Amino acid sequence: MITYLIISLVFSFFGFLPWFSVSYWTFRVFDFIRLQLLLIQFGILIFGFVYFHEYTFFLLCSFVILFLGIGYQIGIIAPYISLRNNEKIKREEDEISLISVNVLQKNIDYQRLIDLVNSNTPDILLTMETNNSWEKGMEPIENNYSFSHKVPKENRYGIHFYTNLEVVSSKTHYLISKDTPSVEILLKDKEGKLFTFLGVHPPPPSPTEKPTAKQKDAELMTMAKFIRKSTVPSVVTGDFNNVCWSKSAKLFAKTSLLKDARLGRGIYGTFPTQLPLFKFPLDLIFHSRNIIVNEINVLKNIGSDHLPLFATFSIEKSTSKTKEISYEMNIKLDQIIEEGKVAAIEENN
């Protein structure tokens, strides 16, 4: 009975670890596995009801702890549960379609991506982990697009952008580190309305990458502050290396004044492809309030460890309201950004 109480306490406590403002991956990892942790907690609870027949003090304590842990997990995940059909709500001639995909740099099956693009014909294509070999392998795709913005890198942070829409300007940003580029493309939709597309791929906190999430958080907050000042609507997508319900993802949305496209639509896990029951929503999409996301979905595997993210959206207005950040919020964001810059220098040395 004591063992059952300890197990209940440990697995319930894991779910609360990301609540603490600790950037080490050993804390942040439990944000990524909330769904899986919830299933484990349910399993432990059901086991207790079935196996134990005498309701002792320790068993009741275990049940209370598990109910608290399960309730906390459900409270975080529930806003992303689909409450409606993923139907289109705008006329098709206004729609812009996009595919955002981390191709996995070591994957050399270029044709599977080419086939995916040819079958879905997105207006915007964003690829990540694309190096010089991938750039050459994707050359057939260029026949479908009038514009490309290429930032090949051999460190798994290359990024390529393709579109058929009218491009006003394009930029590459190195927000925190020279190793991790982001792209900013000012576009016009099919009716001439302006909007900004931003593609991101910050580094993850993990035992094989960065020991903390400081650089990732700093990149996201730097971009969020930039977007907040923009007078045109924005769409941001890419491999965030972050789950949509995390504190940093919510702070990104709050700071940038953008909306998470998954809210009320579904979780749409994109990583990893090899373990269907363990998918996390790492490839995210955020948008301004005057942009309507009509559809969001995941597409078939192209040989990567990420599934491609597909979405369609429409621009309602070419203008976006700006809003000053409060003094207290600005201090908090500047601290996150400064810590990320320091971490990028220390972790890259």
Can you walk through the features of this model?
With 349 residues, the protein is of the alpha+beta class. It is built from 9 helices and 12 strands. It has helices at residues 2-16, 25-32, 34-51, 57-77, 110-120, 132-137, 214-228, 247-256, 327-348; strands at residues 96-102, 124-128, 147-151, 159-163, 166-173, 182-188, 194-200, 234-239, 259-260, 283-287, 291-298, 309-315. A 6-stranded mixed β-sheet has the order 3-4-2-1-12-11, with no helix packed on it. The protein has a 6-stranded mixed β-sheet with strand order 5-6-7-8-10-9, with helices on one face. The protein is globular and about 70 Å long. The relative contact order is 0.14. The mean pLDDT is 93.
Strand content: 15-25%
Biggest sheet descriptor: 6 strands, mixed
Put simply, the count of helices is: 9
> How does the overall form come out from the CA principal axes?
globular
Question: Would you list the SSEs in sequence order as H and E?
Answer: HHHHEHEHEEEEEHEHEEEEH
Provide a concise account of the structure shown.
The protein has 349 residues and is an alpha+beta fold. The chain is built from nine helices and twelve strands. It folds into two domains: 2-80, no CATH class; 92-315, Endonuclease/exonuclease/phosphatase (Deoxyribonuclease I, Chain A), CATH 3.60.10.
Write the layout of secondary structure elements.
Blueprint: H1 2-16, H2 25-32, H3 34-51, H4 57-77, E1 96-102, H5 110-120, E2 124-128, H6 132-137, E3 147-151, E4 159-163, E5 166-173, E6 182-188, E7 194-200, H7 214-228, E8 234-239, H8 247-256, E9 259-260, E10 283-287, E11 291-298, E12 309-315, H9 327-348
Parallel strand pairs: 1-2, 7-8
Antiparallel strand pairs: 1-12, 2-4, 3-4, 5-6, 6-7, 8-10, 9-10, 11-12
Helix pairs in contact: 1-3, 1-4, 3-4, 7-8, 7-9
